[in-house]
Design brief:
By secondary structure, this protein is of the alpha/beta class. It is built from ten helices and five strands. The chain folds into two domains: 141 residues, P-loop containing nucleotide triphosphate hydrolases (Rossmann fold, 3-Layer(aba) Sandwich), CATH 3.40.50.300; 64 residues, no CATH class. 43% of the residues lie in helices and 12% in strands. It has a five-stranded parallel beta sheet with strand order 2-3-4-1-5, covered by helices on one side.
Length: 233
């Protein structure tokens, strides 16, 4: 299991940075105000959009009732099928339903048009969550089609950042490296530098650590020797 998967946030306390967003979402969850809403999380890759979406979804439904799909694969018939079943309550401790559409800037304009109507009447036991790396446009919203601005206006929007939390990302990566034995006494500044090199993408930072970024040269040579021996070379 790679480090990002192993240490993927499972609760709000695990999410690095974004304190204001976390506070708002926790208050919504405490008040039972997640259902009946659509959410849009924007920001660069590796800052926690998908993890936040997953944690938020679990506030109103069991993991098996979270439907996750890439924006490029959403069809109008798929939306129609969701609408036809929206009155159904599901079994489980939390009988809700959450639809997560990742990379929603890839949505077809016809799909967006169908979604606009769907989002006008979200049932109290369901929620929609959209994530995107799309860059904000001044006149037409986050995506490439004029209708996307209307989609955005139907969502509660949270913009996630990476650079602002460089030190927090570095601290998290440093702790993981220590716990996993993947460092050789580097100071925090080395991890801050790694954050900048990875464009403040925490997932990429952990991938670099997984590959032995901060292991001493001697340890790398030992590992290479063990690998060659295991392979029978």
């Amino acid at each position: 299991m790679n480090l990002f998967t192993k240490y993927r946030p499972q609760c709000w306390d695990d999410v690095v940075g974004h304190a204001r967003m976390k506070l708002r979402l926790i208050r919504m969850a405490t008040a039972g105000d997640i259902g009946g809403r659509a959410f849009l999380f924007t920001g660069p890759s590796g800052v926690g959009k998908s993890s936040v979406a997953y944690i938020l979804a679990r506030e109103i439904c069991d993991p098996d009732n979270v439907v996750e799909i890439d924006g490029s694969k959403v069809t109008t018939s798929g939306i129609d099928d969701i609408v036809s079943k929206r009155g159904q309550l599901l079994l489980g401790n939390k009988p809700g339903k959450v639809h997560v559409i990742n990379e929603c800037h890839k949505l077809d304009s016809r799909v967006i048009g169908r979604l606009l109507t769907c989002l006008e009447d979200i049932r109290s036991h369901e929620a929609w969550i959209f994530t995107t790396q799309g860059v904000r446009q001044k006149q037409i919203g986050l995506f490439d089609d004029a209708d996307s601005g209307a989609l955005e206006s139907r969502c509660t929007v949270f913009e996630l950042e990476g650079e602002r939390y460089a030190t927090l990302f570095a601290q998290r990566a440093m702790q993981i490296a220590v716990d996993e034995g993947l460092e050789s006494g580097q100071e925090l500044v080395a991890y801050v530098r790694l954050a900048a090199q990875c464009e403040f993408n925490l997932r990429k930072m952990l991938s670099r650590l997984d590959a032995g970024e901060f292991l001493p040269e001697q340890a790398v040579e030992i590992l290479e020797s063990q690998t060659l021996s295991f392979a029978g070379c």
